User: Which sequence fits this backbone?
């Protein structure tokens, strides 16, 4: 029974992470910066370089830090992913729902469940009906 529960938790987490990428931006690449377009084209390596350049030059959209954090996440550089989401939370406090959620997913991937729990809670404080964050917070509690 314990193995089935952990398997269910893992499947639920993976499914909720699909939301992570679904929330990264809209359909197609219309209106996206070059860095965001590279990310949407599954070119995370080049995307993070261009996104960092865009941030340095003041070309920041509502999703720039989210794409940057997700790009580092895809590359397996969780420390830089955390840094990107945290910078985004400072620069764009109105985007706390999504940035905290994805920050929580990064902490969860690192097995830092207490930090993940706090991030999911922060996301839920922004939107109490954000069910993906609620599910992932429950998973973090179980772990």
Assistant:
């Amino acid at each position: 029974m314990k193995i089935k529960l952990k398997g269910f938790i893992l499947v639920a987490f993976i499914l909720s992470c699909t939301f992570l990428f679904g929330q990264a931006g809209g359909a197609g690449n219309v209106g996206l910066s070059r860095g965001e377009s590279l990310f949407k084209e599954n070119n995370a390596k080049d995307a993070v370089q261009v996104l960092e350049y865009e941030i340095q030059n003041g070309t920041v959209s509502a999703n720039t830090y989210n794409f940057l954090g997700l790009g580092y996440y895809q590359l397996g550089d969780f420390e830089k992913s955390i840094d990107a989401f945290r910078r985004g939370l400072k620069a764009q406090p109105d985007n706390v729902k999504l940035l905290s959620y994805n920050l929580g997913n990064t902490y969860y991937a690192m097995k830092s469940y207490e930090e993940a729990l706090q991030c999911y809670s922060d996301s839920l404080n922004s939107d109490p009906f954000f069910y993906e964050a609620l599910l992932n917070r429950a998973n973090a509690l179980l772990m």
